[in-house]
Amino acid sequence: MKIGIIGATHAGVYAAKQIKSEHPEAEVTVFEKNTTVSFLSCGIALWIGDHVSDPEKMFYETPESMRNQGITMLMAHQVNEADLKSKTLTVTNLDTEEVTTQQFDKIVITTGSKPVIPNIPGIDSNRVYFCKSWDDATRIKSVAKDLKRVAVIGAGYIGAELAEQLSVTGKQVTLIDGADRVLAKNFGPAFTERIQKEYEKNNVDVVLNQFVSKFENTPNGIKITTPNGSYEADIAILGIGFLPNTDLFSGQLETLPNGAIIVNDYMQTSEDNVYAAGDASTVFFNPTQAIDYIPLATNAIRQGILVGKNIVEPTTRYLGTQATSAVELYEQAMVATGLNSATAKEKGLDVIETVIESDYRPDFMLSTTSVLSSLTWEKDTGRIVGGSFMSQHDVSQSANLVSIAIQKQMTIDELSMSDFFFQPNFSQPINYIPEVALAAVAEKQALTLAY
């Protein structure tokens, strides 16, 4: 069995490893246009902020370690043409410029995503940087120490973390976004209002409700123009989102309008013996019970593993995703899963978001810290579709717990009565997770009585 894998980001790496684990006899060939594999791009901002012990450790596999597992790794090999019906790939060796054609029994598409690059005058300036690949990371890192002013375009996770790390290392930062809040797609207003104050405390100029209309080089840097004003910096870094990198397969597979390849529960595409995983493909989003495009490393890894498990027979179903994620900004842990009230409304769900704040352990302890908690739930059924937590205490696993609750389609009533331990070192008699669920139940009962 000959299997060709296009791309060696997270999904491609895990697909190749799992295929060899399940089927040692399979001939697995991976084509990768770059010279590195498995780059943990989520660490770029931390590296820029000097919080990485060794940048080489931002890779969990190397081409050599993959070869040692019996996988043929063709690095610096660009797939130029892919005939998915015949399973034929035309490939250029970027080092020698030699072009070859190979045919396979099965094709796995793990080409990942590409940054959104809007058609803005001046965006091709050498002072505009991107934040996606190892090359992007090394380019930013090479100039970071000498920067005094940086404009970050986009206040999602990437931009938010970049702005924070640059500000704590003494840079003058301008954070620009077209939305009315930072992290607007990740958290509700109670959370974003609080973290925006932290940016302002740290001298970050937060510019909202403004889209960039032009970049223009100046003698000392770059000018960023919006409809409401202009801002100057040494460089601008774009972090405004990603699109599926699937142009190579245009017209050959069923896709979403943005090009994300539609896969079923077994990572199979609309073409026999062609699989897709990771940022190139769709996911099943459990809060909405529908397919969606959510490029996250955690989705890519699990989908890559599923390719390996299902490459011969469809045996292991995809359980879907809740898009669980986290970030730490100014010593505040911010974690989220599923939807908040704003994003749920965009998806057409009728929900309520219940928000409370309470200390994570009893006040008789020598120290404690407050936790801002929220649950988003369907008004009619009480089904949980989202949750968020924010604290200087480590609340990271709270999002994972609520993620499982969403996956299992639990209601606020069920979560409020679930078993959580009490011990004063760790929690209140009622843990903050069932506490916010109890508040949601009370809110639901009040609504019922009102009607």
Topology:
Elements: E1 2-6, H1 10-22, E2 27-32, H2 44-48, H3 63-67, E3 72-75, E4 77-83, E5 88-93, E6 99-103, E7 106-109, E8 113-115, E9 128-130, H4 134-144, E10 149-153, H5 157-168, E11 172-176, H6 189-201, E12 205-207, E13 214-218, E14 221-226, E15 229-233, E16 235-238, E17 242-244, E18 274-276, E19 283-285, E20 290-292, H7 297-310, E21 325-329, E22 332-338, H8 341-346, E23 351-359, E24 370-378, E25 384-391, H9 396-407, H10 412-416, H11 432-450
Parallel strand pairs: 1-2, 1-7, 2-3, 7-18, 9-16, 10-11, 10-16, 11-12
Antiparallel strand pairs: 4-5, 5-6, 8-17, 13-14, 14-15, 19-20, 21-22, 22-25, 23-24, 24-25
Short description:
The protein has helices at residues 10-22, 44-48, 63-67, 134-144, 157-168, 189-201, 297-310, 341-346, 396-407, 412-416, 432-450, and strands at residues 2-6, 27-32, 72-75, 77-83, 88-93, 99-103, 106-109, 113-115, 128-130, 149-153, 172-176, 205-207, 214-218, 221-226, 229-233, 235-238, 242-244, 274-276, 283-285, 290-292, 325-329, 332-338, 351-359, 370-378, 384-391.
What does this structure look like?
With 451 residues, this protein is of the alpha/beta class. The chain has three domains: 2-41 and 52-113 and 242-310, 3-Layer(bba) Sandwich (FAD/NAD(P)-binding domain), CATH 3.50.50; 128-238, 3-Layer(bba) Sandwich (FAD/NAD(P)-binding domain); 325-450, Enolase-like, domain 1, CATH 3.30.390. It is 25% helix and 28% strand. It contains eleven helices and 25 strands. The protein has helices spanning 10-22, 44-48, 63-67, 134-144, 157-168, 189-201, 297-310, 341-346, 396-407, 412-416, 432-450; strands at 2-6, 27-32, 72-75, 77-83, 88-93, 99-103, 106-109, 113-115, 128-130, 149-153, 172-176, 205-207, 214-218, 221-226, 229-233, 235-238, 242-244, 274-276, 283-285, 290-292, 325-329, 332-338, 351-359, 370-378, 384-391. Strand 10, helix 5 and strand 11 (172-176) form a beta-alpha-beta unit. The longest helix has 19 residues, at 432-450. The model has no long low-confidence stretch (mean pLDDT 96).
